[in-house]
Every structure is written in structure tokens, then in C-alpha cells.
Design brief:
Elements lengths: L16 H26 L5 H27 L12 H4 L1 H15 L3 H9 L3 H10 L6 H17 L2 H18 L2 H14 L4 H17 L1 H11 L2 H6 L1 H22 L4 H19 L1 H16 L1 H23 L1 H4 L2 H16 L1 H36 L2 H40 L1
Length: 421
């Protein structure tokens, strides 16, 4: 007779597999007891019934022995405090410590992780996924997307947003803007890119002059003497001033070599040099930078930028297919193909991943081990017993069933040998 064995994984089992199999094993034991009593009462009717009696008797003994052994792992059989029973509840702390030590010695040591990571080509795997994201494991991709979305949604937005915005502000305050502005201005003047800016300033001055003509005329009128106002010469003087200013601005716009324009460019060149090398000028720019960053309008802009970034990340993780489309998707696809074909590019990436994994193991391995040990210690005996029994109880009940059948076969064989002699 072929012994029974478990062929399905635990994930495919029903909700209470251990309980169901316990009923089967107990029912088989009761069946053997009933069969033994029936055979014993009718053994005189036919010699063959003796074989049935021997089978049932030995099966009953084997089933009882295995029932005692299985029950003794989790509790006292029949509630009796028999020594060396209820093994798991009594040794809960030791089991947790042993499990933690097993994890540390066999999985969470830098040498083991380094040896395992040495055979993994993480860069190539990432390249294959990027080059063909639709060909990967859809469940893995969707699960990762859901996890990322849930993390973003469940994190404290005030705290997370404050951290992000604070980091942005700190990075902006740490930037010395003056030399950057000076270098940009110097490069623009060297390449002639400042000419449109200069022309724009002149045009702005011309429009400003035209828009405020009445103010200039009023100012000349108020400062002119009574005789000039009586004769109307103040109006002629104001018109002459305005016409002169307009002609000056027109000449500056048309002639790149105009004296005032050259003076303005000279001032711009000095400003570019001061921005790069003058400590006082750099301090002024830094104060202006800090004032801008402290302005409520700037804070609202940073808030909006963070919210847009967060919303974009949520859209990307909720729909990874769209995130991998368009120009970004093409760029990532090209990166994936490059990772697969370029050994020189994969080598440093794999080295970095390996060192990161080994470093994390060295830094946090003991913490993980301690977490496992303290978690098991924190469980009450009933929790440990229930969880272990749910995990392996089905297999243990198969041991009882097999013990019943094996005991019956052994008893049958012994009875057969005894009848021959």
C-alpha cells in the first residue's frame, strides 16, 4: 500500500487544513478501534478474520502512538502534565532565539550575502525589465505599483511634505548664486547674447519715457520761473528735454558703439566680475536670495511644486504602463538595452548593489535578528502554538494517518509470519 503524502503547497490549502485532517486521522483511529472490536468478536467464524484483527490492533497502536507524539508537540495529551509534552509552548523563547541565530548564521552575514550576490546580475535583470516592461511579471509590476501608491498615500503628508520642502529650501539656501549669475553674465557678454537684453532695456526706457511724458512736463513747469511760465517757454523747454532723451535712446538702440551703451556694457562687465569675486556683492546676493525664499509667495510656489511632484508620482505608480510610455519610456527602454549589451556598464552597477546589500546586512543584520527573537518572545504560548500548528499541522495529521496504516501493515505482517510457524 502506498503511503499518503502532502502534494499541495500550503498556499493552495483550505482555510482550516489542520482541523480537517485531524478529523480524518481521528476518524481513522476510531474506525480501526471499531474494526478491532468487530474482528475480535467474530474471529471464531473464520481464520481470515484473525488477519483483520491483527491489522486493526496494530493500526490502533500505531495511530495512538503517533497521536500522542503529535499532540505532545503543542499541548499536554488529554490535559495531563506528562513530562516532555507541550514542547513548543514550554520552549517558545528558545525557539525564537534558535530561529534568530539560524537566520543570522545562514542568511544575514556579510559573507553569505556577498557570495549570493556575486552570482546575481542585477543590472542585466533591470535592463531586461526596462527594455521590455510588458514582458515581465505583470503581478510583480502591479504589486509594486500598488505598494508604492499605498506608501505615498498613507505617509503623513504634512510631515513628508515638510521634509521635502525643507530639503528643497536648504538646498537652495546652500547654493552660492552670485558666482553662477556672474559666470552666466560674463559668458553672455563674451558671446554677444547680451545685445537683445540691452536693446530690450533701451526699448523699455523709451516706453517708460513716453508713458510718463506728462510728469516730466509738470516737473519742468513747477521748477520754471514765473516769466518762463508766463511766456510759455517752460513748454518749449520740456519738449526739448523729451525730444533729446528720445533721440539719445534711439541712437543707443541703433548704434552698438554708442558711448553710453559702451558705458552700460562696461558696468555689466564689472558687475559680472564683482558677482564672481567680490565677497560683499556675494553677501548682498545671498541676502536677496534668503529674502525671496522667506517670502510667503515663494513658500506657496514650493508647496505647489511638491504637490505637483507627488501627484505625478502617484499617477506614475498607479499606471506603470503610461509611466513607461512617451519620451521617458523610450529613454528607459534605450537604457535597458544598453544595460543588457554593455558589460562595462553592468559591472560597476552590480558592484554597487552588492556592496549596498552587504553593507545593509552588516549594519542591520543584528537588528533583524533581534527583531525576530523579540517578536517570538513577545508572543504568548497560545499564539506560537496556533501559528505553528496552522503551518505544519496538516503534515502532522498525515503522520498520524500514515502511522495508523504502517502500524496495521506491520501487525498484518507479524500475524502472517506467526501463522506460518
Amino acid at each position: 500500500m502506498k503511503l499518503l503524502r502532502v502534494t499541495r503547497p500550503l498556499s493552495d490549502m483550505p482555510a482550516h487544513p489542520a482541523r480537517n485532517m485531524r478529523l480524518v486521522a481521528t476518524g481513522m483511529l476510531l474506525l480501526m478501534a471499531a474494526l478491532f472490536l468487530a474482528a475480535r468478536a467474530s474471529v471464531h467464524l473464520h481464520p481470515a478474520i484473525g488477519f483483520v484483527q491483527a491489522f486493526a490492533e496494530a493500526a490502533m497502536v500505531g495511530g495512538l502512538a503517533d497521536w500522542f507524539a503529535v499532540t505532545a508537540l503543542f499541548r499536554h495529551p488529554m490535559g495531563l502534565p506528562i513530562p516532555h509534552t507541550a514542547i513548543i509552548p514550554r520552549n517558545k523563547d528558545r525557539i525564537g532565539d534558535t530561529l534568530a541565530l539560524f537566520l543570522r548564521d545562514n542568511f544575514l552575514t556579510p559573507a553569505v550575502v556577498a557570495r549570493r550576490m556575486r552570482g546575481l546580475d542585477v543590472a542585466a535583470a533591470a535592463g531586461r525589465f526596462l527594455a521590455s516592461p510588458s514582458g515581465g511579471d505583470g503581478r510583480l509590476r502591479e504589486g509594486a505599483s500598488r505598494l508604492a501608491a499605498e506608501i505615498l498615500e498613507t505617509l503623513d503628508q504634512e510631515r513628508l511634505g515638510g521634509m521635502v520642502k525643507g530639503a528643497i529650501g536648504q538646498r537652495l539656501r546652500a547654493v552660492n548664486l552670485a558666482p553662477l549669475i556672474g559666470q552666466a553674465l560674463e559668458a553672455a557678454m563674451r558671446d554677444g547674447r547680451h545685445a537683445p537684453v540691452m536693446y530690450g532695456i533701451i526699448r523699455w526706457a523709451d516706453r517708460t519715457l513716453e508713458g510718463n511724458e506728462h510728469l516730466i512736463r509738470q516737473m519742468v513747469h513747477e521748477r520754471a520761473g514765473k516769466i518762463m511760465r508766463w511766456t510759455g517757454l517752460d513748454e518749449n523747454l520740456a519738449s526739448a528735454i523729451l525730444n533729446g532723451l528720445r533721440k539719445l535712446l534711439a541712437d543707443m538702440a541703433d548704434d552698438p558703439g554708442h558711448g553710453l551703451r559702451l558705458k552700460a556694457e562696461e558696468g555689466m562687465a564689472k558687475l559680472a566680475a564683482d558677482l564672481q569675486f567680490d565677497i560683499g556683492m556675494q553677501a548682498k546676493v545671498a541676502r536677496v536670495r534668503d529674502e525671496i525664499l522667506d517670502n510667503p509667495a515663494m513658500q506657496r510656489w514650493i508647496d505647489g511644486m511638491w504637490e505637483q511632484a507627488r501627484a505625478g508620482m502617484l499617477r506614475a505608480v498607479r499606471d506603470p504602463g503610461k509611466a513607461m510610455a512617451g519620451r521617458l519610456g523610450e529613454a528607459l527602454k534605450q537604457l535597458g538595452e544598453t544595460l543588457q549589451s554593455e558589460e562595462r556598464l553592468r559591472r560597476p552597477i552590480n558592484r554597487f548593489v552588492r556592496r549596498a546589500a552587504v553593507g545593509a546586512t552588516a549594519s542591520y543584520g543584528d537588528s533583524i535578528v533581534k527583531l525576530v527573537s523579540e517578536t517570538v518572545r513577545g508572543w504568548d504560548a497560545g499564539t506560537v502554538t496556533s501559528r505553528l500548528e496552522n503551518a505544519v499541522g496538516r503534515d502532522l495529521q498525515y503522520i498520524r494517518i500514515n502511522g495508523t496504516l504502517v502500524g496495521g501493515l506491520v501487525g498484518l505482517a507479524i500475524h502472517a509470519i506467526d501463522s506460518l510457524f
